[in-house]
Design brief:
It is built from 1 helix and 7 strands. It has 91 residues and is mainly β. The radius of gyration is 12 Å and the shape is globular.
């Protein structure tokens, strides 16, 4: 199964080309919860820190400036370590 892809500090050109600033924003307080992805999600972390653990996989630490792709069908457990704010889009 595909896993989480993280690109640290992508270029401003890439973010502009993808239109990230126009994506929806999602915020979440410090918490722990399961999250299953019914569709591919692409996200850019603005604030906070999360540890995402795929079922049967290793934890992935995600911080501000990370550009992340969660594949469709991925089952994960989330720990929001610091309040999260991210741009995201599905598909």
């Amino acid at each position: 199964m595909s896993q989480i892809t993280v690109e640290h500090n992508p270029s401003e050109e890439k973010l502009k080309q993808l239109g990230v600033s126009g994506w929806s924003i999602w915020e979440k307080e410090v918490s722990k919860f399961p999250l299953n992805f019914g569709a591919k999600e692409t996200a850019y972390i603005l604030e906070g820190e999360i540890v995402v653990t795929p079922k049967g996989g290793e934890p992935v630490r995600i911080v501000p400036g990370d550009f992340v792709v969660f594949p469709e069908g991925l089952k994960t457990d989330w720990e929001v370590v610091k309040p999260l704010r991210k741009h995201y889009k599905h598909g």
